[in-house]
Each structure stands twice: as C-alpha cells, then as structure tokens.
Amino acid sequence: MTDVVIAWVNGNDPAHKRKKAQFLTGKKEADFDDVAGAARYSFTGEIYYCVASLLRYASWVNKIYIVTDEQDPHIDEFVAHNFPENRIPIELIDHKVLFSGYEQYLPTFNSLAISTMLWRIPGLSDRFLYFNDDVFLAAPAEEGMWFDGDRTIIYAERFPTIWARFARWAKRVGRKHKVFGHKDPMLNAADILNSSYFYLFPHAPVPMRRSWYEKFYAEHPSLLDHNIRHRFRESSQFSAPTLFYLSAERDGLLEARSPKNTTCFFKPSFKKKNGYMERKIAEAEANKELKFGCINSLGETTAEEQEMFKKWITKRLDIELT
User: Fold this and answer.
1) What are phi and psi of 233, to 5 degrees?
2) Parallel, antiparallel, or unpaired for β 263-266 and 292-295?
3) What pLDDT, in 10s, does the model give residues 43-55?
4) 5 close to 124: Cβ distance less than 8 angstroms
5) Closest residue by Cα to residue 198 from 234, 223, 168
6) 157 in Cβ contact with 150 (< 8 Å)
7) Burial (Cβ within 10 Å: 0-12, 13-18, ≥19) of residue 122
8) Which residues pair with 264 in a beta bridge?
9) Which of 19, 58, 267, 300 is spaced 20 to 30 Å from 278 by Cα?
10) pTM, full prediction
C-alpha cells in the first residue's frame, strides 16, 4: 500500500504574500529564487496536472495527501469532471498538522523544512511518494517502480561529494549571497552520514518510508529541529530523502536505477530563446522511455509558452481544465 504526498502552495494568494512579508528579515531573501523568490511559490495550475497524472497513470495509489498552509486548491470539481469514477481519496493536510508540537516554527515557507515533516501525517502509509506540485507522471506507472518489498527503488546516480563541494565553492565565488542549489542539501546530508557521495536524483517522484524517519528523528531530534526551524531555505539544511537513501543503502535496502531518459524537466523563463517550449515538448514526445516530468516556474515565461505547455499536458493526460 502506497500513498502520495504533494506539497502545494499558491504564492499568488494575497493572504500568503502578506504572511510571508511579515517574516522577511531585511536580508533580501525575496530577491533570490533559491531562498524566497516569487518563483518558488508561483502557481499556474500545476497541482491539477500532478493530481491528474496520478489518477490517470497510477490507479493503485491508496490515498493522495495535499500539504498546504491554510489554502485549498479546490480540486474536487476538477476531479469530478475528469475522473467521475475516481476511487482514490484526496485529503488536505495543513502545516499545523505536520508541525504539531513544533508550532513555534510556523508559518514556514521552506520546502526543505516541510519535506522533513511529511512522515508525521496521521494515517500515512509506511511507503509513500513525495511529489512537489510541479512534478507529474508522464506515462503509466506501477508501484513496483519504487518499492519492492522492503527495498526502495530510486532513479538516481552517485555524485561524489568532492565535486559537489567544488561546485558549491565555484558558484559562490565573488558573491555575497550563498547560492543554495539542488545539490547543496544533498551534500549536507551526505556530510551528516560521513558519506563520500550522495545520490543525485532529478525532479521526479521521491519514494520515502515513514517508519525510517520516525526512528531516525527519534534518535536524532536535534537534526530534525535544525532542519525545520528555518522559515526560508538556509544553506546548512539537508535533504531528508538523501539521508534515507544513504542509510537504506548501508542496510542493503536500496536499489538505484539509471535516471537516464526517465524525466523531462521543463524550466522555461523569459530569458530563454524563442522556441524553448516547443523543443522541450518535442523531446518529451520522442522519448519512449519517459516516466516523469516537471514543469518548473511555469509562471516565469510568456503566456504563449504557458498555453503551449497547457495544450500538451492536457492532451497527454486526456483532461480538461474546469
């Protein structure tokens, strides 16, 4: 039995903007997309594609949880229209539920803090997949793609910490702001476990096990506290999935498969050359091994390219936006 947990935020919501503004410290967090820039919270309907892909391609899912902060994506009407026979329950989980007993760290605008606490959802299955709301399945998927008995399956490659450390140094040279990218929290997790490598996984579904986190944080409460106390992303934070993967590997309970050709990663922006979206869609359509997709910062591109992606994804998932 496997559940899915989706972290979602509507950063366009005026109430959310006001709440976030109260906790900006004057260190210009909002100027940096890797910390608290608007692109981290923008919403252009991605949650609908994410949920639709699960209902279309993964009917074996036991339950879908949408984690949010006093917001509601109003997804019931969309599901009823496109999947009238849907049997997978969908439940909203507020941050207050995740952070019960740690309310002093709320509100939080930090995806690393939130992912650290997902295992605390009441009733969550031991096996669950973590989706950011901009991730979607791109083809039919089986539960066995991620779990095989006690073994967890990931689509990732080993990445030496020495190279990650060099990349971190290089991108920070000459900058006052400590750039905190995709690999950095993975590197921090590897350092915690004294590992010379970590598994570099793409923007795709992330398999996790509730029981492992419950045991690990019971034994290392200070690590949990450190990772959830920051309201915005902070350079000392670690990747919770990376901790799990390295530990599971040491216990002989991890299988790493090549991520090659599994994911189509869209990252459009106003700065990209004309034709970017058309090229990426063509690549996705030509890839017969494609399993997952991610549309990152869709709101940071032109209306024309947004419409192009919408037309492609709705056709691929056979849905209508209500």
Assistant:
1) -55, 140
2) parallel
3) 678 999 999 999 9
4) yes
5) 168
6) no
7) exposed
8) 293
9) 58
10) 0.91
Cβ 75 vs Cβ 196: under 8 Å: no
In terms of C-beta density within 10 A (0-12 exposed, 13-18 middle, 19 or more buried), how is residue 30 classed?
A: middle
**Edge-to-edge strands of the sheet including 147-148?**
147-148, 151-155, 254-257
- CB count within 10 Å of CB 195 equals 21
Residue 117 has φ and ψ, to the nearest 5°, of -110, 5
For the segment 117-134, the average pLDDT, to the nearest whole number, is 97
Structure tokens of 321? 């936006």
**Residue 287 near residue 130 (C-beta atoms within 8 A):** no
CA distances from 256 to 150, 158, 191 (A): 14, 9, 20
First to last CA, the chain: 31
Q: Residues 146-174: pLDDT tens digits?
A: 999 999 999 999 999 999 998 888 777 66
3-state DSSP call for residue 264?
strand
CATH architecture of 2-317: Alpha-Beta Complex (3.90)
Contact 128/117 with Cβ under 8 angstroms?
no
5-9, 139-143, 164-168, 197-201: the lowest-pLDDT one? 164-168
The two tokens of residue 293 are 């997709």
